[in-house]
Write a structure and sequence with these properties.
With about 325 residues, the protein is mainly alpha-helical. The protein folds into 2 domains: about 200 residues, 3-Layer(aba) Sandwich (Rossmann fold); about 90 residues, Tyrosyl-Transfer RNA Synthetase, CATH 1.10.240. The strands form 2 sheets. The chain has a two-stranded parallel sheet. A two-stranded parallel sheet has the order 3-4. Strand 3, helix 9 and strand 4 form a beta-alpha-beta unit. Helix 3 crosses helix 13 and helix 4 packs parallel to helix 14. It is elongated and about 80 Å long. The two termini are about 35 Å apart. The relative contact order is 0.14.
């Protein structure tokens, strides 16, 4: 995760929940990638440390366990920069310019100058992040498939030139939950439509209650269609009670339940699901030293692995003294 903003419900349901499951049966490395934040926010770095702590708190409050996984800060493992440099020798400009998100993000973001080497080369840094730990699987969404394929390509190119040193990872796609923002579009910090994991219940209520539902349902007596209502998608995520969901869906279609009542039921379900996370988050916010200790300890563990990787990489490339 890039520390450029707080995490929101979209991050939780599409990524974090899956990470928490994976750590039970796998050796996992979870990173806050602060160098990646510089690829777009290099001109104003004032909030990177703040968001680094906030994201780490979100990691822990959602269930990532530093006793089961390595949770670390990218910039504290300098070997990432070293591998990035070496892999950069293999990455062509033309190939980087064909990365779909390169042109898309440059076209979308007009208030920042992204015509930098750092932004062009961020897929190489991402590849270094992955290949450093010889990962055999990388849990990502479908939107990251191209980046994983780039990582696989550069790993194969390295191995063809210098010997079979780097593992060629596969993408581990998780079922991605569709989480709408409060305006009905995809939830995104860029759109200003997010419900953050750090929001209080009162803040969540203030965001949920004004949300537009089925636009064809203008009056309480008008029948609605749950499939056209973003509130219904939230019920699918938060409401595990099948009887309750059926009552809401049928009530909507037959105009037996109003949108306000539907939202009130949803808010109760959100409170039930999120309260353990909110409570844990509140405790962690009061112990900033613990957050720093988690990152320092995790970064030390990550660096032990990274040093071994770089020893084999540098030996293969014949860099350094012997």
């Amino acid at each position: 995760m890039r520390p450029t903003a707080k995490l929101h419900l979209g991050n939780y349901f599409s990524v974090l929940k899956n990470w928490v499951k994976l750590q039970e049966d796998n050796e996992c490395y979870f990173c806050v990638v602060d160098w990646h934040a510089l690829t777009s926010d290099y001109a104003d770095t004032s909030l990177i440390r703040y968001y680094t702590r906030e994201i780490t708190i979100d990691y822990l409050s959602c269930g990532l366990d530093p006793e089961k996984s390595v949770i670390f800060l990218q910039s504290q493992v300098k070997e990432h920069a070293e591998l990035f440099l070496l892999l950069g020798m293999l990455a062509t400009v033309g190939r980087l310019e064909r990365v779909p998100t390169y042109k898309e993000v440059r076209a979308e973001i007009k208030d920042k100058d992204l015509s930098t080497f750092g932004f062009l080369g961020y897929p190489v840094l991402m590849a270094a992040d992955i290949l450093m730990y010889k990962a055999d699987a990388v849990p990502v969404g479908k939107d990251q498939e191209y980046h994983i394929e780039f990582t696989r390509e550069i790993a194969r190119k390295f191995n063809a030139l210098y010997g079979n040193v780097l593992a060629v990872p596969r993408a581990l796609f998780a079922p991605i939950a569709k989480v709408p923002g409060i305006d009905g579009r995809k939830m995104s910090k860029s759109y200003g439509n997010a419900i953050f994991l750090s929001d209080t219940f009162d803040e969540v209520r203030k965001k949920i209650m004004p949300m537009v539902t089925d636009t064809n349902r203008k009056r309480r007596t008008d029948p609605g269609d749950p499939d056209k209502c973003p509130i219904w998608l939230y019920h699918l995520l938060f409401n595990d009670d099948e009887e309750s969901r059926n009552m809401i869906a049928n009530g909507c279609r037959k105009a037996k339940i109003g949108c306000v009542d539907c939202k009130k039921i949803l808010l109760q379900k959100i409170k039930e699901k999120m309260e353990p996370i909110w409570e844990k988050r509140a405790k962690l916010e009061q112990d900033q030293n613990y957050i720093l200790d988690v990152l320092k300890t995790g970064s030390q563990k990550a660096r032990e692995t990274a040093r071994k990787t770089m020893e084999s990489v540098n030996e293969a490339v014949r860099i350094g003294l012997r």
